[in-house]
Write a structure and sequence with these properties.
The protein is of the alpha/beta class. 44% of the residues lie in helices and 16% in strands. The strands form two sheets. It has a seven-stranded mixed beta sheet, sandwiched between helices. It has a five-stranded mixed beta sheet with strand order 1-2-4-3-5. Helix 4 packs across helix 5, helix 6 packs across helix 12 and helix 12 crosses helix 13. It is globular. The two termini are 15 Å apart.
Length: 426
């Protein structure tokens, strides 16, 4: 097969796409898949780059760059979040789209993987400017997105309001309301109960399954440190606290806090609401993010950014269990070190799949114009995640590999089987 850019072999070892490709290459070594299909799945199906103007409040016009990548549509329409960050690159979006493909396949929902982003710090924009940027970016995506081809969702730097603007922009373009064009939107316009909590809740469900597998049953005696206190980290902390676990440390972009006796998460949430950071929370000691990763605890949950646990710090991780709330927080080189040290890792495509699972529920509800209550959403979420965990564990044991390889092998095989049945067009 002759291919053009991107060439995975040229990627920097610090790039998210290099990590995604390296994981893919490792996982497929133990699978009997036709070489043509293997090569096909290695590359994004399509990539979209847009440069667009946004009018600022002072009347000046500023140019912004945005991306949308579809990695796969073999199992269904592509699905993936949109992030607003100054760190967004096409390389990062490619990696995140690939991980979304495996994530959707692993939990066995009928989606392929996509991802999008705009290079911007949303905190530097007024509400009007943020709406202008979102609506213009959404209008540029009109040729790509639809409820049957590509369904965006919120990610880092975006939220339900951003999704509402995208939904309205698309609906005004086609001339009628289309709630199913995005997920993660407000409930009043077709959002789902439980969507906000879904990813963090799923992280803790997989954590509890892993602790059960490891023979650790005490909840109050199990200490947890969480890097990242955005949507994923804060909801993971809330659910873990509710379940009786001891949260000893959390952090955000400003830094972290530590209390060996445990943090009062409801009080901490009020503190963050009032101050904008976890720092200086009463009764706790301020720490930095690197100290959190090296902290002595039972469970470490990296729920921030990619490439946080690397070959430079993996030797210093003291947790016995890592549950990846973020996408790609552990590099392949760090994986090798953690495996050699006997540290158990629940991989991202399993641990943080709760968001896309409930996004799928939201999409189904919108297409049927029939809503579920929160209890039903959480019941179905738990059922699907536990099933995916059991399948991953079974494959890991069958092939004598770690959980990351077990998860990726399960997902990649499903996509390959579907590709084989569908065949290459024309």
């Amino acid at each position: 097969m002759v291919v053009a850019l991107p060439n995975p072999t040229t990627q920097s070892h610090t790039s998210a796409y290099h990590t995604a490709i390296e994981q893919y290459n490792r996982a497929t070594q133990n699978l009997s898949i036709d070489d043509n299909i293997l090569d096909y799945m290695r590359y994004p199906r399509r990539e979209f780059t847009v440069n667009f103007p946004v009018r600022r409040d002072d009347g000046q016009t500023e140019m912004f760059t945005g991306y949308r990548v579809h990695h796969s549509t073999v199992l269904g329409p592509s699905k993936g979040g949109i992030r607003y960050s100054t760190g967004v690159t096409l390389d990062e979006v490619r990696a995140l789209a690939m991980w979304m493909t495996w994530k959707c396949a692993l939990v066995n929902i009928p989606y392929g993987g996509a991802k999008g982003g705009v290079v911007v710090d949303p905190k530097t924009l007024s509400q009007r400017e943020l709406e202008n940027l979102t609506r213009r970016y959404a209008s540029e995506l009109i040729p790509l997105i639809s409820p049957h081809s590509d369904i965006p969702a919120p990610d880092m730097g975006t939220n339900s309001q951003v999704m509402a603007w995208i939904m309205d922009t698309y609906s005004m373009t086609v001339g009628y309301s289309v709630p199913a064009i995005v997920t993660g939107k407000p409930i009043i316009i077709g959002g789902s109960e439980g969507r906000t909590e879904a990813t963090g809740r799923g992280v803790i469900i997989t954590m509890m399954e892993a602790l059960k597998q490891m023979g650790q049953s005490s909840r109050s005696g199990t200490t947890v440190a969480i890097q990242g206190f955005g949507n994923v980290g804060s909801n993971a902390a809330s659910f873990a606290y509710e379940m009786g676990f001891t949260i000893v440390a959390v952090s955000d972009v400003m830094g972290g806090i530590y209390n060996p006796r445990g943090l009062d998460i409801p009080d901490l949430l009020e503190h963050v609401q009032a101050t904008g950071t976890v720092m200086d929370f009463r009764g706790s000691e301020n720490i930095n993010n690197e100290e959190l990763l090296r902290m002595k605890c039972d469970v470490l949950i990296p729920a921030a950014m990619e490439n946080q646990i690397t070959e430079d710090n993996a030797d210093h991780v003291q947790a016995q269990l890592i549950v990846e709330g973020a996408n790609g927080p552990t590099t392949p080189e760090a994986d090798d070190i953690l495996n050699d040290r006997g540290i158990f890792v629940v991989p991202d495509i399993l641990a943080n799949s709760g968001g896309v699972i409930v996004s799928y529920f939201e999409w189904v509800q919108d297409l049927q114009a029939f809503s579920w209550d929160k209890d039903e959403v959480f019941r179905q979420l738990q059922r699907i995640i536990v099933r995916a965990y059991d399948e991953t564990q079974s494959n890991a044991e069958k092939f004598n590999v770690d959980m990351r390889m077990g998860a990726q092998m399960t997902a990649i095989q499903r996509v390959a089987d579907a590709m084989k049945v569908r065949g290459f067009y024309p």
